[in-house]
DNA sequence: GCGACAG
DNA sequence: ATCTTGTCGC
């Protein structure tokens, strides 16, 4: 019993063949990726014309790796008030594997987006912040890119932890961890994550003066890195930008009420 | 070969 | 991602 496969609770297997196929899909879809501003509002200081911002996230039920709550919220800009929330209980098909997060999470998120599109197109978000990386990825095609391309909507990737990329010591975990603490001294400070090849994958950003740990911002789709960073900073009331923070709160809240119902029905 | 590894 | 209370400080 010696295997290099990852087996999820529902029996699906991810072997080297599957990985290879997924890698090809990422490379193929990447040809459709747009890394420049292709948005319906201005990039001036006020972001004139920007009114609706989306956020997506998944939360998990403890003791169960396959069942999750996917949520989508729409906030107003610049007030950042919640205008719309939707969530869906989903059962995931594949386990989490670094570099292949999209194959686990993209389907339910896409479903929430298309649902909003048909239900209330008038408040459809002008971009969506995704809980996970975009081009800050070994093949420069993380979840935020994947979702952006499939939905054809501008997206920004925001990760809470750094994903190691194989492109020189500059992008090694220890180096980034050190430099990041050294360079990011106040809210709004930015450190570009550039590999030995010269590629800029994304940036470590300090959200606020009051928070030390950076967030990792990268291009998702149809937004340049610098615009993405400016937008994310405008969305930060706390370390995590409001769109994904509210989406996270939304799905956790649902899980909490589910647990309460269980207690009541079993007692 | 061994460890690292978004959520 | 999730398991988890208090606690130190502005």
From TrEMBL:
This is 10367_t:CDS:1. InterPro entries: Endonuclease-V. It comes from Paraglomus occultum. It comes from the Eukaryota. Its main location: cytoplasm. It is found in: Cytoplasm. GO terms for biological process: DNA repair. It holds the Pfam family Endonuclease_5. One of its GO terms (molecular function) is RNA endonuclease activity producing 5'-phosphomonoesters, hydrolytic mechanism. GO terms for cellular component: cytoplasm; nucleolus. Keywords: Cytoplasm, Endonuclease, Hydrolase, Nuclease. Gene3D superfamilies: archaeoglobus fulgidus dsm 4304 superfamily.
